[in-house]
Amino acid sequence: MKKVPIAPRPGWQAFAESVGFQFHTIDNEPYWDESAYYQFSLAQIEDDLEAPTEQLHQMALDLIPDIIRSEQQLSQLGIPEPFWDAVKDSWQRAEPHLYGRMDFAYDGKGPAKLLELNYDTPTSLYETGFFQWVWLEDQQMRGLLPAGADQFNSLQDKLEQAFAELPLPRPFYFSSVTESQEDKGTVDYLMDIALQSGLDSRYIQLEQIGDIDGQLVDLEGYPIQGLFKLYPWEFMLQEEFAGTILSSDTRFLEPLWKLLLSNKGILPLLWQKYQGHPNLLPAFFDDGKTALNPGWVRKPLFSREGANVELITPQGEKLQQGGPYTDSGYIRQAFAPLPRFGDSYTLIGSWVVGDLAAGIGIREDNSLITKDSSRFLPHIILD
Amino acid sequence: MQKKPFKRSRKAALIFMVPAATLALQGCGAEKAVEAQVFNTPDECAAFYNPPAQCQAAFAEAQALHPQVAPKYANKQECEADFGTGQCETAPQQHAQGSFFMPMMMGFLAGQMLNRGGMAPQQQQQTAAAAAGRNTVPNQPLYKARDDQSTFRTATNTPVASQPGPTQVRPSAVQPKPATLARRGGFGAQAQQRAAAAPRQATYGG
After folding, report:
1. Nearest Cβ partner of A206 from B7, B187, B200?
2. H or E segment at B139?
3. Which of A59, A122, A325, B153 is most buried (most C-beta within 10 Å)?
């Protein structure tokens, strides 16, 4: 694994905008960064990332039957009691799931360490599945990368297959929060793939979803029987239509049981069951108040994009990221340093579609906490 | 043919995120606007040299449509938030907790006024269109929003005019539909609260 500088494609910004990537730059800061790429060997990809991703995914799924039977664990995970049965039902009915992303600290040597699962509303999908794929083809065409270079990125193929094969109601609706251009970009990409796979797909703003007698409906008042929502379950369960989730004849992507895995509380539960696993870091439930010791990281059960994360390095350096996720419980996890390349710390997001590993996306930040503003860099596989 | 390597997708293509495809999906050319008329009352309609009986008929049709198409609210406060204090009335439809509310009708759109000041060409054009069953503008009620009292709007919130008299409308934009009796806005509140707490947060994914 190494970082290699490369000339950006001339005019790539205009190209990005022409293919729906409006958020390549966020608040005047670069988000998509093609001034360099990461290079992996095939063995690093297959042995250190792909195989562990699928194994950890199975380990996490294997926890669910225990969790849904345990009131204590459901409470520890902050699942509101009125929804316990619905979570159980969604699992026992084997409601299909589409995708997720694991975040790893990995430096090319030794086991990748699982930092967390983003299993409810993962983003950076378009950047990974489409834009870095095109980048590789372009750079090969321009002769800047060898024809034999590959990429660990079967996201679009696997998503298209999933949309074609999953038992989804039709029409199927896609939804995101109106104000977020980035979320709309992710949803547009998923809808695009769904349309290519032949699924009758429609978009509705999350705020526009209606309720008639306990059934979610679209703008015309027709029942929404299938809904992809790029919006956290833990938010939905606190909002006015929370009760409608229970009564509505609607199949959700991701299904409600994903709430158990998108939860940072899954990390201590994994550690309890698989203590010492090479890809796991020690993790425990935390009261959120006790002073943190050096070498530990504290995270809210529910948080996104590094928000409200607090860490102290083994050397005693303290880092804290503010944010809006202060209303759930906490966990603490042993600190695993992100590898440093030049001035940047690097995080690997490893995708899962269905139950298969489907590629990686790389984020870089100037700090040890990866955030929504962290840059996205492409990668290649070349032995 | 070059054999694609194993670890990446065989293809990564877009069909609707790219503008060319979007245009293709939108299909045929732009629809032509047609003339219709907007009035506060049937008397005002007649004052614009329209036959009083037709004015009365158009008004009566709009009034009859009003309870069916007016936007419905589960309570008066939500309705008044959109249409202004004292501007809402009880709708005939009921929900579990009581009646729906709807804005009062503030005027009407007359789309079928066939004999306006003896303008025969207009008459023929509209009669022909009506016979073909397209490009027609149904007579219907109009409303005014709380924060924009000068604009007449259809029940589906399409602005049609800012003063009484003739106006140009696209027929497809002013087709009345039965209002859905849905409560809306039940998702998204957490995003708003958290956006206020952390304005930089660009995504609710992660």
Report:
1. B187
2. none
3. A122
What CA–CA distances, in Å, run from B61 to B14, B54, B132, B175? 47, 10, 21, 14
Report chain A residues whose CB lies below 8 A from the CB of B200.
27, 372-373
For residue A23, which of A138, A125, A100, A103 has the smallest C-alpha distance? A125
Kindly state whether A133 is in contact with chain B, defined as any CB-CB distance less than 8 angstroms.
yes
Per-residue pLDDT of chain A (383 residues; tens, 9 = 90+): 999 999 999 999 999 999 999 999 988 889 999 999 999 999 999 999 999 999 999 999 999 999 999 999 999 999 999 999 999 999 999 999 999 999 999 999 999 999 999 999 999 999 999 999 999 999 999 999 999 999 999 999 999 999 999 999 999 999 999 888 889 999 999 999 999 999 999 999 999 999 988 999 998 889 999 999 999 999 999 999 999 999 999 999 999 999 999 999 999 999 999 999 999 999 999 988 889 999 999 999 998 777 889 999 999 999 988 887 777 799 999 999 999 999 999 999 999 999 999 999 999 998 888 777 799 999 999 99
**CB-CB contact of B127 with B115 (8 Å):** no
How much is the ipTM here? 0.91
Q: Which of B7, B16, B19 sits opposite A45 (nearest CB)?
A: B7
Task: Say whether residue B117 is in contact with chain A using an 8 A CB cutoff.
Answer: no
Is A219 at the interface with chain B, CB within 8 A?
Answer: yes
Prediction pTM value? 0.81
User: Are the Cβ atoms of A212 and B14 closer than 8 angstroms?
Assistant: no
> Do the beta carbons of residue A130 and residue A156 sit within 8 Å?
yes
Nearest to B37 by CA among B174, B139, B172: B139
**Is B186 in Cβ contact with A235 (below 8 Å)?**
no
In angstroms, the CA A37 to CA A42 distance is 16
The dihedral built from the CA positions of residue A16, A18, A23 and A28, taken in this order, carries a sign that is positive
Across the interface, do B193 and A188 touch by the CB < 8 Å criterion? no
Q: How is chain B split into domains, by residue range?
A: 34-116+131-182
- Could you tell me which chain B residue has the CA closest to the CA of A189? B17
Query: Residue B198: which of A156, A207, A324 has the nearest Cβ?
Result: A324
